[in-house]
Amino acid sequence: MIQDINILYHGTGATFENPDLDNSREDVDFGVGFYTTQNKEMAKKWASSKRKSTINTYSFNRIGDLKIYTFKLDEEWLDFVTNNRLGIDSQKKYDKYDILIGPTAENKVFDTVNEYIKGTYTKKEAIQYINVAGFDQQIVFKTEKAIQSLKFIKRELLEPDEKAFIKLQVNKDRKSALDKLDCLKKRNSKKSYKNEGESK
């Protein structure tokens, strides 16, 4: 819940004492926005791919009447992320929100989303597979009004040793997620084969 949020992290390659929307891309999960998380380890993973890996820390003090929407891991979320990644501008109903909260389609689940986009998985399968892999939450500030609720506290740089360790952990997490996915696919395949056999 947004009222429980006090500290947020933004993992990137620079210091952002005054966050803005100017450096954001459109073809990411929730489109243009300032991406944060309550999970510092997640922010470190975001930053680890950057040359100057930086963790920016902010306090969140809700200002004014912010409109907030929270996604669940369901077909609505999958459609929204897919359309943003494909650059499909057909999601005006979300433009009225200042902050969007929901699962992040990063590392562990990125392949699953891509396979769904290619048509390899159905929506139901993609959501089931992402649930098995596990996911983190992101809190995305979509308007300047929302960004005014953030107050910069400090920045930290990842040391080379920690950065290398995090990269190894990201690869381990991804492999673990893919292994879980393979096991689930095999179980589903056996179940499907058994059901076909019983229906004959």
Note the main attributes of this structure.
200 residues, alpha+beta, 4-stranded mixed sheet, 3-stranded antiparallel sheet, 6 helices
Structure explained in plain terms:
The protein has 200 residues and is of the alpha+beta class. The protein has one domain (2-194). The protein has 6 helices and 7 strands; from the N terminus they run E-E-H-E-E-H-E-H-H-E-H-E-H. The chain has helices at residues 40-48, 75-86, 110-118, 123-133, 144-147, 160-199; strands at residues 7-12, 34-36, 54-60, 68-70, 99-103, 137-141, 150-157. The chain has a 4-stranded mixed beta sheet. A 3-stranded antiparallel beta sheet has the order 1-3-7. Helix 3 (110-118) runs antiparallel to helix 4 and helix 4 packs across helix 6 (160-199). The longest helix has 40 residues, at 160-199. The mean pLDDT is 85.
Can you lay out the helices and strands and say which pair or pack?
Layout: E1 7-12, E2 34-36, H1 40-48, E3 54-60, E4 68-70, H2 75-86, E5 99-103, H3 110-118, H4 123-133, E6 137-141, H5 144-147, E7 150-157, H6 160-199
Parallel strand pairs: 4-5
Antiparallel strand pairs: 1-3, 2-6, 3-7, 5-6
Helix pairs in contact: 3-4, 4-6
